[in-house]
Write a structure and sequence with these properties.
By secondary structure, this protein is α/β, with parallel strands linked by helices. It has 5 domains: 5-72, no CATH class; 82-171, Nucleic acid-binding proteins (OB fold (Dihydrolipoamide Acetyltransferase, E2P)); 181-302 and 380-448, no CATH class; 452-488, no CATH class; 498-765, Metallo-beta-lactamase, Chain A, CATH 3.60.15.10. It has 27 helices and 24 strands. The strands form 5 sheets. An 8-stranded mixed β-sheet has the order 15-14-12-10-9-8-23-24. It has a 7-stranded mixed β-sheet with strand order 16-17-18-19-20-21-22. Helix 24 links the parallel strand 19 and strand 20. The longest helix is centred in the middle third of the chain and has 27 residues, at 322-348.
Length: 769
């Protein structure tokens, strides 16, 4: 086998697994190109026929492993509400429990009192699968949950009977014991450290970070230190270093010390839930310890290759995940760049060994992972390097003190002493993260670069050591800078068509308009109805944070010409404040009504804070762009409609959007009273496409109005299994009676309308019919 044989075999196995994985078309093209490159290299290199056969076999086995795992994964199909015998398996955070039902691990949100971990319960609910992508370029929730080992969700869950005396199903016991141990450990940490210190330490010790407040999680993410809360190489390395130090102090033979350390790190990996980064790190550490026991170099690309092979054949579904890409690019980056960074640091200043090592590893990690992190998290952390320099050196000490606190729980004074020492370190870590995240430009919103741009950047990094060895320092620097520029501003093909995307935001509205010349409007921002007192936050805003803002960034929209709010209900204005915080908005168009919902108030408070002007278009007003798109407003008009079924809905901002011969009508939640006013005014309402008002309710889309519009296509933004019965059967019947083809976000996902202004528009749905 050639010197690079193990690396080539690992590359072949990974590419084989990727060939059968559900990837984007760009990622599949890139994987195919890499496979072709591997084939060419193998055929042209001086290797034996036996090695070529081995490489081909590994590639096929990688593909077979991925295919078999995909075939054997449990499948959840949507079912009617039913009763199930279940066992409470774990807590998932965010108020959810993990329960095992008929061999499936599913999430369920129970009303209080929540049954304890390990309880056998009889539950009632509707078993449903997680969604695939429902909006363009959106990640699959199903794939993300499968990576966590969760198969589906039990909706409307209710506990009918609880028992802790029954025996658990085979295979549940160890997992339940582990979950109970985690819950006990978290309570011990919380009792002496308080929050959020206990949750930060739980993240370090077993990857549990769901109890962290959302704003603190966001700050860790913005500063590039979220990896501290995910048990991975940093934590496994800390465990290995501590064990080796203790065993060396005991004067044990090197081989025995390495073997015991390997057992300790695998025990830690299993304790932390056997997540992919921990398994990768434990495999690499085991290879390094074996090399150390034999007197050889500890860390090498071969150790990384062994870890990749292990994951391909044990957990092939993980190969296509962001976690795999981040984990392996981080370690490969350290192997590749650490020597170069170390030489550069030594030329600038003579630092103590500990400080130099921390700086070198942090810089190498940031250089190797920022393009992937930006693509995954849609943001670039400006202060990732100083944040990691401040936080990472504390991790080993906080983990050791946390473990000591748990082991000494039988002796309250000693356990409290460990907690007191730890609280100082944890306070420093939190202070560093919060301070750096509050600085200007701490987080810059990013549009993810296509896979080939990130691959070009990685290739430039891998080529840098060879270029530096040949004294081509300038060439190495220029290659990296050009590749980084590709990631920051990737080239894209201009589409000279009008694009209107009705996003799937559940029982809400959010519509993105992109004109041929690059103008962009957002009509409503998603959310959910707000009922009762809201306090200082609102669930309505989560839709904007998780769906609307990511869609805008993924499509390169960092600035909006206008944000049009049809009316102030939470299901239309919920995402306004999150959009304003991440996207530059030239102005807000509002109907001028008043409302007490938190999302509406937060929207305008944020607008005033960011000095976004607010305009109030009225019937008859027009907006025009230089590329021929015209918005003509139909409402509201003064005096406002009063004493109707719902005055706020009836006074929604309504308008037509015209582009040459194309026309689309938007009416917000306007109902029959507003439609009657439009008709009485004699306005030409005929449009090819109708965004159906009020989610298709029975209070809108009257036959007279639909006759005047006479749409060819009708798009309804509506949530699945909504409590209002939308869309109403009579609305569907009316639309069909006038020949309209109906698209519904609950059935079709997001609908994107593409038009060149002359030919018939094309409608593309995320979920194929």
């Amino acid at each position: 086998m050639p010197a690079s044989g193990l690396i080539l075999c690992a590359s072949g196995a990974v590419l084989g697994a990727l060939a059968v994985a559900p990837l984007s078309s760009g990622a599949h093209v890139l994987a195919a190109a890499a496979s072709l490159g591997l084939l060419v290299h193998t055929l042209t290199a001086r290797v034996t026929p036996a090695f070529r056969t081995l490489l081909a076999a590994v590639l096929v086995l990688g593909a077979l492993s991925g295919w078999l795992r995909a075939r054997t994964e449990p499948r959840v199909t949507e079912q009617r509400t039913a009763r199930y015998n279940a066992v409470v398996f774990d807590r998932s955070g965010d108020g959810d429990s993990v329960v095992r039902i008929e061999g499936l691990r599913v999430l369920a949100r129970f009303p209080d009192p929540v049954p304890p971990i390990g309880a056998n319960v009889v539950v009632r609910g509707r078993l449903v699968p997680f969604d695939g992508p429902r909006n363009p370029e959106e990640p699959s929730e199903r794939a993300l949950q499968r990576e966590r080992g969760i198969d589906g969700r039990l909706e409307s869950a209710a506990v009918l009977k609880t028992s802790v005396a029954l025996r658990h199903a085979q295979g549940d016991t160890i997992g339940i014991w582990l979950a109970q141990a985690h819950a006990w450990a978290h309570e011990q940490l919380r009792a002496r450290l308080g929050e959020p210190n206990a949750s930060v330490l739980a993240g370090e010790l077993w990857g549990e970070r769901s109890a962290l407040p959302p704003d603190l999680r966001a700050e860790f993410q913005e500063t590039g230190t979220v990896h501290v809360l995910v048990t991975a190489g940093l934590h496994v390395g800390a465990v290995a270093a501590l064990c080796l130090a203790l065993l060396s102090a005991a004067s044990l033979p090197r081989g025995v010390a390495c073997a015991l350390t390997a057992l300790a790190i695998w025990a830690f990996a299993l304790w932390s839930g056997a997540e992919l980064p921990a398994i990768r790190a434990a495999t690499m550490a085991t290879a390094a310890l074996t090399a150390r026991a034999c007197g050889r170099a500890t860390f090498s690309y071969n150790a990384l290759a062994l870890a990749a092979l292990a994951i391909v054949f044990v957990r092939p579904q993980s190969v296509a995940t962001p976690s795999f890409a981040l984990s392996f690019s981080c370690v490969a980056g350290i192997f590749t760049l650490a020597p170069l960074v170390e030489r550069a640091v030594d030329r600038v200043a003579a630092l103590p060994n500990a400080a130099r090592e921390a700086l070198v590893l942090s810089a190498a990690t940031q250089l190797s992972t920022w393009p992937l992190s930006a693509a995954i998290f849609l943001q670039f952390g400006m202060y990732g390097l100083p944040a990691n320099l401040a936080v990472v050196p504390c991790v080993a000490a906080t983990m050791a003190l946390g473990a000591a606190q748990l082991l000494l729980c039988w002796c309250a004074p000693l356990a409290q002493a460990c907690a007191n020492l730890n609280s100082w370190l944890l306070a420093w870590m939190l202070s560093a993260v919060r301070t750096l995240s509050s600085l200007p430009l701490a987080s810059i919103p990013m549009t993810p670069a296509p896979p080939w741009c990130i691959a070009a950047y990685d290739a430039a990094l891998l080529a840098a050591p060879a270029l530096v060895k040949r004294r081509a320092h300038s060439a190495a620097g220029v290659a990296i800078l050009l590749a980084a520029a590709l990631v920051l501003r990737p080239p894209h093909l201009e589409d000279r068509r009008l694009a209107i995307t009705v996003l799937d935001v559940g029982q809400a509205d959010a519509i993105v308009v992109q004109t041929p010349a690059g103008h962009a409007w957002l009509v409503d921002t998603g959310g959910r109805l707000e009922r009762g007192p809201q306090g200082n936050d609102s669930l309505a805003e989560l839709v904007g944070e998780r769906i609307v803002v990511p869609f805008l960034l993924r499509h390169g929209i960092h600035a909006l010409d206008a944000l049009i709010i049809s009316h102030p209900h939470g299901d239309h204005v919920g995402g306004c404040a999150p959009v304003l915080r991440k996207i530059r908005v030239a102005e807000i168009a509002d109907g001028g009504q008043t409302y007490g919902g938190h999302a509406y108030r937060d929207c305008f408070d944020t607008a005033r804070e960011r000095r976004v002007p607010i305009v109030y278009p009225r019937a008859g007003a027009e907006w025009r762009t230089g590329d021929g798109v015209v918005l003509r407003f139909l409402g509201p008009s003064l005096p406002f409609i009063a004493n109707s079924h719902n005055d706020i809905n009836e006074n929604s901002v309504a308008f037509t959007l015209r582009f040459r011969s194309f026309c689309m009508l938007f009416t917000g939640d306007a109902g029959a009273a507003a439609e009657e006013r439009f008709l009485a005014r004699g306005t030409d309402l005929h449009c090819e496409i109708l965004k159906v008002g009020h989610h298709g309710s029975a209070y809108s889309s009257t036959p007279a109005f639909i006759a005047a519009v006479h749409p060819r296509y009708a798009v309804i933004s509506v949530g699945r299994h909504n409590l209002f019965g939308h869309p109403a059967p009579q609305t569907i019947e009316t639309l069909r009676s006038y020949g309209a083809t109906i698209y519904r976000t609950d059935q079709d996902g997001a609908a994107t309308i593409l038009s060149d202004g002359t030919t018939q528009p094309r409608i593309v749905t995320t979920i194929e019919r």
